[in-house]
Design a protein that fits this description.
heterodimer, A: six-stranded antiparallel sheet, 39% helix, B: alpha/beta, 27 helices
Chain lengths: 575, 637
């Protein structure tokens, strides 16, 4: 039984968000785009929310305020809808159907194929009467109408079948290994010591205590003095006062257990004293151990399978450790929802499971690459060029798609000279020469990443521009395409834009007689000059152009180049 | 499992039944409920850790509530593993969850007679040119009910009637009526089963899910199952080897008029690889009564094959527990019965151990009057589908109004009942003036009216305010607490006529809430569902324990009494006039014989039968059943 959809309305920064979930789903996106909000929405509905009791899953600041003047009394209700749906009718096990179906059941059968579906809707609204947030929830029928209140008692069955375990980005090992921790305390509490053994141990503890105190000496007088309490208040039996060097009960002893890890010097250090990275990793391992142990299984529920929400598992970890960590995460038995900022982590992930959250005019959107968007060949290319090697591209707002190394050098150089911070604007320059422009455009469109194609005028460039024009689908050509003039490659263009001196300098004298047939004043000269660059000389020339541009100042940046950069900035700003 | 140790060998064989289809033919007083309960308890105990449930369908909500109590006493953890319900409640719940198939929302209304008549009238008026053959909406409803309980598909309707034109028109009316129900998001009792059956037939996955959840299905009082109920059962257990546990007695079929039939048991044999266990042992009646019952029922032709006679398990006491008396006329009969009862009570019998049984209410009322004349408290059960006292009329109408917010008829019912409660005239016009202020929302208007009314008691005002705020769980207890207080103050505080039925109906209300699942559960429901449960509940008051009960034979189903007085044992009474018209071997006559069989087998200690020579001035022969039982002998000429 998979949690297949999550809909969030008016929760924190999210006005409306619809998210489709897979067996594994990886959330990426800039800070403040709603990743944590998604995880917290899940935690509120599947962990904090209870069918009885008053623990409120929401607080006032969880409300969505769409203006500065908005306050809780006028904020729209928080509405979160979780949908568990069969991918095909008959997928769910008998136990799921039994625990959630039948009299007072919550399984709706959805036409046309009558697949089973459970929808939980949680609504929190500010009540003028109690002056507090009031949370209500309901299950929905096949038409989205509220099922009778009686059926709400199935919430706990749902939460037992699909318990949510949430691990936040802040991992303080000292706290996670304490007896109040969700993941550590079950190991502490479920003691398998039999009563006889326990009594024996406690007897020994008492003896050791006595020995220590006796040997220590100084407590003796104090104890006798304290015993006088007995004369004033009625207390039970002899030896009312005891001074315990070690805990007298096994229970207390277990409560004080702590995990230590040997440091590089070999000394045992409590886990909370280690570096952030070690702490983080250890907590993740504890989490994994907890999930794998029987302790996570809800009593009597055979098919209890967790939904695991992990926030930034990569926090504080070395890139290699991040990649290795993925194996641990992958092996967790349950549905996984992971929020990450790590391109390294993404490099291990199936691209279809990635959801990119981004904001357009304040609204959160979800981008993903649905199956079938890219063909097999494109998938291989994408996997190699993006996932494996440039995971950070998922975090970009704009892809500036260029044909080769020269374009990359010129555009990034020009940006620097113009004082344009491409990184800060979340623009990434992507060289598509080795792969497939179409693939990048399709992927960008699916993920909600803006793109701009920068191309020179040679036949291949014109073909590329033509291809990208077909993908515009109503968007303006002006903002998305830059085609250099004169049907020429970029080098003659740069010559004509004032950098002919650079090319004169770089042209190999050996080549000149072979290619140059006309005088400098002839229009064809520039083209011939550029042919004289030595093998692999184009990038070197481009670097020199950038140096020259830097010396000559902002005004020396060719028009088409600076305009392209300005357009890209506009796209990034969402204008 | 200790509870198995008290069973006899036949009961034990039934209680140990595991998988497959079993029919338990259980005679009266044979301990069938104990057997059924033991079997369910055993299954629960043997499958701890499993998540499937056992479905137990009983005949009434009361029977479900009683069996729940017995079961939980045996196996406390059975609560989540067993669903005890009746066909109507079960079907209602299915429709709440899956009624979207018909465009119903889960809070659909369950309508009663008056509203049904209104719906039919609206169809007849709207299509007056087409629908010319119907004399009255009431008559038309009888036909609709017949079609509903026989799950008649639209196409088959014309063939049901001799006159093709009437048949065609009934088809139009029937489908228009069903359409109107769906459109207005409401159902009647018949339609609940009809639509549920249709849903299970058309949406295979709904039935499949139910089969996954309910691996075992038990049905009590199977003999009174009608076609719609049986079809629902078939959808829940379609395989020949289904885990079906059927308890019934073809000799106790009493609801033939509602579609029950002794043939249903034969149908069961056709559809399932059926094993039959008989429980002929009778632990209730004196041996003499068992002998009468056996002689009587042997005259019926349509009985289960191989049906064994009842076997008396009680010792003879030495004095004859059966008495038969004949009288000149019905008044003499009633007078004598009343004196006898009075004497028994004087000799120490408790009123609740005595019952007067008759085929019809008219006979009972005569005995009731005679008992009243002797100052013996007695109670004639009258089926009620609605509350009559002003306070409960007010509460129910206000709840219904809260659910729909505006409805002229309900609004005037609320104001009328409210006026009756406080003896002050509030009329519909008062409400109408507020209604305009609230854009036609009559509930808000009711709140405003209550807030501004000069003589409305503060408690009632608070109750109404809570209702307007959507808190019906506050409204009901607040209003009831107020009425209880007024009732306790006695005659001064209230209009005695409007409160006459209050204490009885208050008890009925209490029982209904208990059957729904006590206060906590009942008032936790959504208003829509609460109204559904209320509509399904039995509103017939129970007799006070200090009164001698006067019951129709149908009303005594499943009960037992120390002293049974069966009156009106004459032709045209028992058997009824209609059954005689149908013929001596007709199914109607056989049903009358079963009625007599059920009546006498209620007896624990003594059975007194009586007849008069004349009823309503007409000469009547003693009932043929007296002869068949061997209590009278024909003159041999």
């Amino acid at each position: 039984m998979l949690l297949s959809r999550l809909r969030i309305e008016n929760y924190r920064g999210v006005k409306l968000l619809e998210l489709a979930l897979d067996e594994t789903t990886v959330l990426v996106g800039e800070n403040n785009c709603g990743k944590t909000t998604v995880l917290h929405a899940l935690r509120a509905c599947l962990y904090t929310l209870r069918s009885a009791g008053r623990a409120s899953p929401f607080e006032e600041f969880d409300l969505h305020f769409d203006s500065q003047s908005a306050d809780p009394t006028s904020a729209p209700p928080i509405t979160i809808t979780l949908t568990f749906e069969e991918s095909k009718a008959g997928d769910w096990s008998d136990e799921v159907e039994q625990r959630l179906g039948g009299d007072g059941g919550i399984i709706a059968l959805v036409p046309p194929d009558d697949r089973s579906r459970v929808q939980l809707r949680v609504i929190a609204e500010y009540s003028k009467v109690t002056q507090d947030l009031e949370t209500a929830y309901e299950f929905l029928d096949a038409n989205g109408k509220s099922l009778p209140a009686k059926n709400r008692s199935r919430l706990s069955a749902l939460q037992q079948l699909r318990p949510l375990f949430y691990l936040s980005a802040l991992r303080d090992a000292g706290r996670e290994f304490s007896r109040s921790s969700q993941f550590w305390s079950p190991f502490v509490k479920n003691s398998q010591i039999d009563p006889a053994k326990k009594a024996e141990i406690e007897e020994q503890l008492e003896a050791i205590n006595a020995q220590i105190i006796e040997a220590h000496g100084t407590f003796k007088g104090v104890r006798e003095h304290l015993s006088k309490v007995q004369d004033l208040v009625a207390l039970g039996g002899h030896d009312v006062v005891s001074v315990d060097a070690v805990p007298a009960r096994v229970f207390d002893m277990l409560n004080r257990t702590q995990v230590s890890i040997a440091s590089s010097t070999g000394a045992k250090l409590p886990i909370g004293r280690h570096g952030e990275g070690t702490q983080s990793l250890t907590v993740l391992m504890l989490f994994d151990a907890f999930l794998k142990s029987e302790l996570a299984r809800k009593q009597g529920i055979k098919e209890s399978k967790p939904i695991v929400a992990l926030e930034e598992p990569e926090a504080h970890l070395h890139p290699n450790a991040v990649r290795a960590l993925w194996k641990t995460i992958r092996d967790i038995d349950g549905q996984k929802l992971i929020a990450t900022h790590s391109g390294d982590l993404l490099s291990e992930v199936d691209i279809h499971s990635i959801r990119r959250l981004y904001k357009v005019a304040g609204d959160v959107r979800v981008g993903n690459i649905p199956r079938g968007t890219l063909d097999d060949h494109q998938l291989q290319k994408f996997d190699y060029f993006v996932i494996r090697n440039r995971g950070e591209l998922f975090f970009a707002r704009v892809w500036l798609l260029v044909e080769g190394e020269t374009d990359v050098i010129i555009l990034s150089g020009a940006a620097r000279i113009l004082g344009i911070e491409l990184e800060q604007a979340a623009v990434r320059i992507v060289d598509y020469a080795q792969s497939d422009l179409n693939m990048f455009i399709k992927a960008a469109d699916s993920l909600g990443i803006y793109w701009h194609v920068f191309s020179d005028g040679d036949p291949q460039g014109i073909k590329n521009i033509k291809k990208s024009r077909e993908s515009l689908a109503g968007r303006t050509e002006q903002l998305h395409l830059t085609l250099l003039p004169n049907n020429e490659p970029i080098e003659p263009y740069l010559c004509r834009a004032g950098f002919i001196d650079v090319y004169e300098e770089h042209a190999s004298d050996q080549n000149r007689p072979r290619y140059i047939t006309v005088g400098k004043e002839d229009d064809a000269y520039v083209m011939q000059l550029c042919q004289c660059l030595p093998n692999n000389g184009k990038p070197a020339a481009a670097h020199t152009v950038v140096v020259a541009m830097n010396e000559r100042g902002k005004n020396s940046v060719p028009n088409e180049v600076s305009e392209c950069l300005i357009k890209v900035l506009k796209l990034a700003a969402g204008v | 499992m200790k509870f198995l140790m008290n069973l006899n060998s036949n009961q034990l064989a039934a209680a140990n039944w595991d998988t497959g289809a079993l029919l338990v033919l259980a005679g009266p007083g044979s301990g069938k409920t104990a057997t059924l309960t033991a079997r369910v308890a055993r299954l629960v105990e043997e499958t701890v850790g499993e998540a499937f449930r056992i479905l137990c369908v009983t005949f009434t909500r009361k029977a479900s509530a009683e069996m729940r109590e017995r079961l939980l006493a045996l196996v406390p953890n059975a609560r989540d593993r067993v669903l005890l319900t009746n066909f109507h409640s079960f079907a209602t719940d299915i429709l709440r969850q899956h009624g979207s198939h018909f465009g119903l929302t889960p809070d659909f209304e369950i309508i009663e007679e008056a509203e049904r008549v209104r719906l039919v009238k609206s169809v007849l008026a709207k299509q007056a040119d087409e629908l010319t053959k119907f004399v009255s909406a009431e008559k038309a409803l009888t036909a609709i009910d017949f079609l509903l309980r026989n799950v008649t598909p639209n196409v088959d309707v014309p063939a049901m009637l001799k006159d093709p034109e009437t048949g065609r028109q009934l088809q139009i009316l029937f489908s228009a009526y069903k359409g109107l129900l769906k459109e207005q998001n409401c159902l009647d009792y018949g339609a609940i089963l009809y639509f549920c059956e249709e849903l299970l037939r058309e949406r295979a996955r709904v039935a499949k899910q139910l089969r996954t959840v309910y691996r075992y299905v038990c049905v009590d009082e199977f003999q009174d199952t009608n076609v719609a109920q049986y079809r629902i059962l078939r959808a829940l257990a379609p395989e020949r080897s289904a885990n079906l546990f059927i308890v019934g007695d073809d000799d106790q079929v009493m609801y033939q008029w509602n579609g029950a039939s002794p043939a249903r048991v034969k149908e069961l044999e056709r559809h399932y690889d059926l094993t039959t266990i008989q429980l002929p042992e009778n632990y209730r009646c004196p041996p003499e009564v068992v002998a009468l019952a056996n002689s009587l029922i042997a005259h019926n032709g349509d009985r289960a094959t191989g049906k064994m006679p009842l076997l008396s398990m009680k010792p003879q006491t030495g004095f004859d527990p059966v008495d038969l008396r004949g009288f000149e006329d019905e008044n003499d009969e009633a007078g004598w019965v009343a004196e006898q009862i009075s004497g028994r009570l004087a000799a120490g019998a408790r009123a609740r151990d005595v019952v007067v049984l008759a085929r019809n209410t008219k006979l009972l009322e005569r005995v009731h009057r005679a008992l009243t004349a002797l100052a013996v408290p007695s109670h004639v059960q009258q089926r009620k589908s609605q509350f009559e006292s002003a306070p409960l009329r007010f509460i129910v109408a206000a709840l219904k109004l809260a659910a729909v917010r505006s409805d002229e008829e309900l609004a005037s019912m609320v104001t009328k009942a409210m006026s009756d409660c406080i003896e002050d005239d509030i009329n519909a016009d008062d409400l109408a003036s507020f209604t305009a202020q609230f854009n036609g929302d009559q509930l808000e208007a009711l709140g405003a009216l209550a807030a501004s009314h000069p003589t409305l008691p503060a408690d009632l005002r608070d109750a109404v305010v809570a209702l307007v705020q959507g808190k019906f769980s506050v409204f009901v207890p607040t209003a009831l607490a107020y009425f209880d207080r007024i009732e306790a103050q006695g005659a001064d505080g209230r209009d005695s006529e409007q409160f006459a039925e209050y204490s009885t109906e208050r008890q009925v209300w209490h029982n209904i809430i208990y059957e729904i699942g006590r206060d906590s559960d009942a008032y936790e429901m959504s208003l829509g569902q609460f109204l559904q449960e209320l509509a399904l509940a039995n509103k017939t008051p129970e007799a006070p324990s200090t009164a001698v009960r006067c019951l129709t034979i149908h009303g005594s189903k499943g009960m037992e009494f120390h002293h049974v007085f069966l009156v009106g044992m004459a032709e045209d009474q028992l058997p009824s006039f209609q059954s005689k018209k149908a013929g001596d071997d007709s199914r109607e006559m056989q049903e009358e014989r079963r009625n007599c069989f059920v009546a006498i087998t209620r007896t624990i200690e003594s059975l007194t039968l009586s007849y008069a020579q004349r009823y309503n001035g007409w000469r009547k022969e003693p009932s043929r059943f007296l002869f068949e039982m061997g209590l009278l002998e024909r003159d041999t000429e």
